[in-house]
From TrEMBL:
Species assigned in the record: Eiseniibacteriota bacterium
InterPro entries listed in its UniProt record: 6-PGluconate_DH-like_C_sf, Chorismate_mutase_AroH, NAD(P)-bd_dom_sf, PDH_C, PDH_N, Preph/Arog_dehydrog, Prephen_DH, RutC-like_sf
Any one GO biological process: tyrosine biosynthetic process
Protein name (record): chorismate mutase
EC class of the enzyme, as a word: isomerase
Prephenate/arogenate dehydrogenase domain span: 161-413
Matching PANTHER family: PREPHENATE DEHYDROGENASE, PREPHENATE DEHYDROGENASE [NADP(+)]
Reactions catalysed, as given in the entry: chorismate = prephenate
Coiled coil residues, start to end: none
UniProt entry keywords in alphabetical sequence: Amino-acid biosynthesis, Aromatic amino acid biosynthesis, Isomerase, Oxidoreductase
Biased composition (Low complexity): 129-156
UniProt EC number: 5.4.99.5
Annotated spans, Disordered: 126-156
Length: 413
């Protein structure tokens, strides 16, 4: 009997590049992680197929090694090489490049290079976007570069769920990236910062950029609002007014108390509103920190404003690779005060306490790990901590009592 399965024993290589905003360790690692994630997504590669990775960085990027991004993504068994580029007059500053060697590809397969953001200028032949979505049936007219001539000309393909993603930072961007893998979703994105929408579209994370929240929600089956907690009530109300009757609405806020009334009001309008919170994320922020695997095996709490969790919301959570958990809003906020919000404040306090010693080189990995959360987006973290102040205060008093007992035990010998 002849084996008719395709031959995927070949080895191939693929290149990529990404600009880095500034010479900081976290910025270099986040940009490189985004490049690696996009390379795998665009070429539908699995991490197990990576044979080796060679990284180069321009000489103005010396705060960290780009290869550390691969280690943080779990590439622990992949040989990695870092090199400093020879400076060339007039060359683009602050750029990380990578050459991946991969196995398990069909002979003759041509892998797609990925040059993100301004790095696209290094490869003008890829001007249409290295990982732009494949045009769908029913999409609008395209220009010479293959990009839609007008966002309004695009339309979701038949039978695809239309999801509006409001906010394209780490959480919203990661949702968009993962749904691209899941298929069956037409992703329309909107962000108050227009650059985030363009960046997400260029990366293939969304199918269409909307010019407003209302435009994104028009005709949508589901709207996901992934913005800071203090912005959610107003955006939930605006989305509920723009969505068609019977559509679903999901937020991703870290605190439930401030949004409960807004979700109830949306439900009263005939919108199937659900409070949600993915227990995932990192200290990174912005679309640059978005990863398609961010929610893999993570808990995604769900608190319906009325009735059961809508099918569209349940499907989205499962397509993200997450585990849905229905929970009462009050219980959620008490738990997150102890497991997320108070730890952020403690990390900030520890960083302030030991900053001089750390700068003098008198700190180890324990201090780094304990203070990692302090690098979170202060705008976002401050909003969810303030919104959950009562529960955070209760958690702090419990922690302080525990610490006082520990100190008393030490003092007693």
């Amino acid at each position: 009997m002849t084996d008719s399965s395709p031959d995927r024993s070949g080895v191939a290589a693929v290149r990529g590049a990404v600009p880095v905003r500034e010479n900081r360790s976290d910025t270099i690692v986040a940009a490189t992680a985004r490049l690696l994630t996009t390379l795998l997504e665009v070429n539908r590669l699995e991490r197990a197929q990576i044979v080796s990775a060679i990284f180069t960085a321009t000489e103005d990027l010396d705060a960290d090694f780009p290869a550390h991004a691969a280690r943080r993504l779990g590439w622990t068994d992949v040989p990695l090489l870092n090199a400093r580029e020879i400076p060339v007059p007039g060359a683009m500053p602050r750029v990380v490049r990578v050459l991946l060697t991969v196995s398990g590809v069909a002979p003759g397969t041509r892998l797609q290079p990925v040059y993100l953001d301004a790095a696209a200028g290094l490869r003008p032949d890829l001007a249409s976007g290295p990982d732009a979505p494949t045009p769908r049936a029913g999409a609008g007219a395209t220009g010479a570069a293959g990009a839609p001539s007008s966002p309004a000309a695009e339309a979701p393909p038949h039978a695809a769920r239309h999801v509006a993603i409001i906010g394209l930072g780490q959480i919203g961007g990661s949702i968009a990236r993962r749904l691209g893998r899941a298929r069956g979703w037409w992703r329309v994105g909107y962000d108050l910062d227009a650059r985030a929408g363009l960046e997400a579209r260029a990366a293939g994370a969304i199918d269409q950029v909307a010019e407003s929240l209302e435009a994104a929600c028009a005709g949508a089956d589901l709207a996901v609002i992934a913005t800071p907690v203090d912005t959610l009530p107003g955006l939930i109300a605006a989305a509920a007014a723009a969505l068609p009757p019977g559509a679903a609405l999901l937020d991703t806020g870290s605190t439930r108390a401030p949004v409960t009334a807004a979700l109830a009001a949306a439900a009263a309008r005939g919108i199937r509103a659900v409070g949600g919170h993915p227990l995932a994320g990192s200290e990174g922020h912005g679309f640059a920190a978005a990863r398609a695997d961010l929610f893999e095996d993570a808990t995604f709490t769900l608190s319906p404003a009325a009735g059961d969790v809508p099918e569209a919301v349940a499907r989205l959570v499962l397509d993200l690779g997450a585990r849905p958990l229905t929970v009462e809003p009050e219980r959620h906020d008490r738990a997150l005060a102890r497991t997320s919000h108070l730890p952020y404040l403690v990390a900030c306090a520890l960083r302030e306490l030991g900053v001089a010693e750390a700068e003098a080189g008198l700190s180890g990995p324990g201090f780094r790990d304990m203070t990692r959360l302090a690098a979170s987006d202060a705008r976002v973290a401050g909003a969810y901590v303030r919104a959950n102040a009562t529960a955070v205060g209760e958690a702090w008093r419990s922690l302080r009592a525990s610490l006082d007992r520990a100190v008393e035990t030490l003092s007693a010998g």
